[in-house]
Amino acid sequence: SSSPFAQPRIERVQENLFVMRGAVGRRLPRGNRATEPVIARLDALRISRELKRQGWPDAVLWLTVADPRLRARFPHARLVYDCMDPAFEPGQQTRHDRQLGRLVRRAELVFASAQALREDVVRLGGRDVAMLPNAADPGALLGDPHRAQAWRQRLVDDESRPVIGYLGTMDWRFDHHFVMRLAQSNPEAVIVLAGRLNQDRKADLGPLLALPNVVSTGQLGYDDGYAVASIFDLGLVPFFTGPVNDRVNSVKTFMYLQFGVPVLSTEVAESVANPYVVTARGDEDLGAIIATMLATTGGAFATERQAFASTNTWQDRAAEAHTALADRGIWGTV
């Protein structure tokens, strides 16, 4: 809410899901150290009063943003911190570590989505850290086959050509050099880049997009994104190697495996650790690597990949999180 005097209100979205609106009385100020503690206390009083009015005197705060000011709004709640992502801007690493440390040292339980993030949390003083990687969305398999076929007809000029695809944003993490070498060494394949191309990467990706076997869809919505991914014969995770991307457990890996296709990645840590992902460097023979991988599409190979993805869904992660919380007495069993 824009008003510092707004009262929070709780709305029921579904049977066991509620949304609190107006919980933070004003936009969190940047650098306003004088007013922030006062505003935090006012917000905390309002939130506490509303929770009690709803009959919820006890609360567990599951926080996913490394911002201690949000914690200040729930001073009496038991804290669980979900370390999902690294500091994506290298220049913010020191500040990010300082704020993350303040939170994980106070948290009863910290979840980490990647092994390198777990190591960061332990280094910063986290007492109890559990792994909670990303996962597959079962909804991806429920898409409209007619939508997928329409995309295939739009993107692929010859049904006999293999489709090698990437679904995601093309931002600073996207290794265009790797994809350029892959496209050049596999001229018989159609390379589909599905997703938004950030403005600051257009110059870098210009030569790649000019190749005759590379097509780009532009930004896609949820349904179209899954429809395009469903036509891939091989999925790509082409991120620059380095400390930031080593801390990313890629959701797209699980999505590709859900469709049963082989996955090729650069040598980022979470891909190296996944037995269902092939990793390579840009200076390797990507033509030979791709040929070997495409020979594993379909059949028992696809079934094995899909079986892995089917036991690593968001429902599985929710169950794992619930068990971790219940085992520690943070909330009760169901």
How does this model look, in words?
With 334 residues, this protein is an alpha/beta fold. It is built from 13 helices and twelve strands. The strands form three sheets. The chain has a six-stranded parallel sheet with strand order 9-8-7-10-11-12. Helix 5 packs across helix 8 (222-229).
Layout: helices, strands, pairs:
Layout lengths: L8 E6 L2 E5 L14 H18 L6 E4 L4 H4 L6 E6 L9 H12 L4 E4 L2 H9 L5 E3 L13 H11 L7 E5 L8 H10 L4 E5 L7 H8 L4 E5 L3 H8 L4 E4 L13 H8 L4 E3 L3 H4 L4 E3 L6 H9 L4 H12 L3 H14 L7
Parallel strand pairs: 3-4, 4-5, 5-6, 7-8, 7-10, 8-9, 10-11, 11-12
Antiparallel strand pairs: 1-2
What profile does the largest beta sheet have?
6 strands, parallel
Mean pLDDT across all amino acids: 91
Poorly predicted segments:
none
How many helical stretches? 13
Tell me the strand percentage band: 15-25%
Please list the strands of the largest sheet in the order they lie side by side.
9-8-7-10-11-12
Secondary-structure element string: EEHEHEHEHEHEHEHEHEHEHEHHH
Helix content: 25-40%
Briefly, what is this?
With 334 residues, the protein is of the alpha/beta class. It is 38% helix and 16% strand.
Keywords:
13 helices, single chain, four-stranded parallel sheet, 38% helix, alpha/beta, six-stranded parallel sheet, 334 residues
